[in-house]
Amino acid sequence: MNLRRTHIASVFALLAACTGSTRSVRNDPPPTEPADAATPVADAAPSVDTDAAVVARAPLPATTWRPLDGPAMDRLLNLHRAHSPSLSADGRNVVFLSDAPGVPQPFIAAVGAQPVAEAQWRRLATIDDRVHWAQYAPGGRAVLFGRDFGGDENVQFYRLDPSRPAEAPAELTSNRAVKNMFGAFAEDGRTIAFTSNERNGADFDVYVRPVDGSAPARRLYDGQGHNEAQDFSRDGRQLLVMHERSNFDGDVMLVDVASGRATNLVPHTGDERYASPRFSRDGRAVFVVSDKGREFMNLALRPLPEGELVFITEEQHDIEAFELASDRRTAAIVFNIDGRSELRLYDLRDPRHPREISRPRIEAGWIGHVAFAQNAQSLSVSLSRGSLPDEVYRVDVRTAAVTRLTNSDHAGIDTSTLVDGTIERVRSFDGTEVPVIVYRPRGLPAGTRAPVIVNVHGGPEAQSALWFSPVMQFLVGHGYIVVEPNVRGSTGFGKRYAHMDDVALREDSVRDLAEVNRWLRTQPDVDPNRIAVMGGSYGGYMTLAAITLYPELWAAACDIVGIANFRTFLQNTAAYRRALREAEYGSLANDGAVLDRVSPIHRVDRITTPLMVIHGARDPRVPVGEAEQIVAALRARRRTVEYIRFENEGHGVARRENRIRAYGELVRFFDDVMLNRR
Predict the structure, then answer these.
(1) Distance of alpha carbon 579 from alpha carbon 587, whole angstroms
(2) Dist. CA 533–CA 609, nearest whole Å
(3) Which end of the chain, N or C, is less packed with Cβ atoms under 10 Å?
(4) Cis peptide before 303, with omega less than 30 degrees from 0?
């Protein structure tokens, strides 16, 4: 389970839209202005507007750069990925998601000594839309999964029996106008806890219901704001719930399942993060990941019923994932080492003194999901790196042996020819070091100065890490250098760094981008006149801010599902999402002047950089009106802007046919501008 919102980690991840953790402390933010889910959106070709007037720009100096002959885009987009695994009770089968059908769907495969080829997987359900997660219920009698409709992110739950493939999945939730977030199974596998905004559309309350559908859902706890169910006690009488006031401040609530009475286990003032609370084996304490009184997220113990928080790990890196085995004696912890994952196993039989068992020798990269088998003898993880698409692995708890379980179709591409990133650091305007991941093409002729694309992650409470992206690999194989900066405000580098862009400091992170640009201009393999910027979601805002504050630095730009106007963005965001976003950006009531000052729409006159805008009409997080505003403003000023609007997409581009179109147009746009063929 990932402790941070993975959906906004990268514009490339947004375009691919293939993540789906089942139990995330920070689930994807709730949708804004959900469309009428009762009316399905038909698959439709995107509308592409390329008739905007082109203003004259000074011609770029001649370049000796020519595109390289790397893997073709259609092959890279047909390079499949497997992720979000869940092992059966006996560890003999694994359920996971794959984008092989064009959008993430649930599959099952046998666990063996060799990876199972994609042709031997069995698809568990045929869904027209994205499946967000799939998980075995304890006991292995059922698999539950969650799907949305047309990208609206109003996830509904379904149950199926993996031994009866002919049976249609049974609905567990059915109100398509609300968003549900899966939480936890009771130990016997008969009950689930989840949260939903069904009561008033604004607050995520806690519900419980039988897995077999024999009784309706019971609202257990009316929790104002954003809540997520986390863990049942072993006897099923208590439930741990995370309540978030912001992405950096939350509480751990202990809820009585019979009465709904709730107790805050960590009352505090000021920002303190808490994540992944889990009951100890004897029920006398709660494990929880926190940054209380420290820079980094570490594991702590909270005695029950009373007691002070005691930290039992002290690492100078964030814990990115924490999971307990069903016997609650073994834990898997994933540490975030500058964007690379390190998996460690611990013996927790003495809760106050965890003993490290092993550090399984899994390939260097990014672990996106961790889940134990119910028998506690093994765990499954999904892993990717720059040159390796997501695959599912099994780790033996006793021996620490690692076995790859899936072998996805890689469209005939030799992944050893793909490129991994290197981590470098750039000193910014105030001396702060900004980590950047650099992907350099193979085979650039000596003396060539290549064009660069700076890709800014979303969030901002996220980071770029060493994971796979087909569009990044295409750009690098095409001859572009791709740079992914973790500007101030990114997570994974300590509490202070994450807060350095809050509210009035917002544009300091844009200054970091400018310093990355200036650093690139000093590199011997970079063409200083051909540096572009792009980003998705909050990274889309950063892109627009970069070309309004420093238009002279950027030769081209692409904004994907980004924010142009913080005021209208917050006004059009539902109440439950607004509270979390205002904690980062500032509130409409108190910080309106700051929000207006940092909104790119109010400096649109400064934009001279050719811009492409990509957005989904059904985007529930950043409404499509943000794209419409910036496009209309630029057209009115006869600036160079191209706009692609997908009618059947939400926040990002999930469908393979749409990804092919979006990627193709994006690369064509950059080639046109960077090679000065306009």
Answers:
(1) 8
(2) 10
(3) C
(4) no
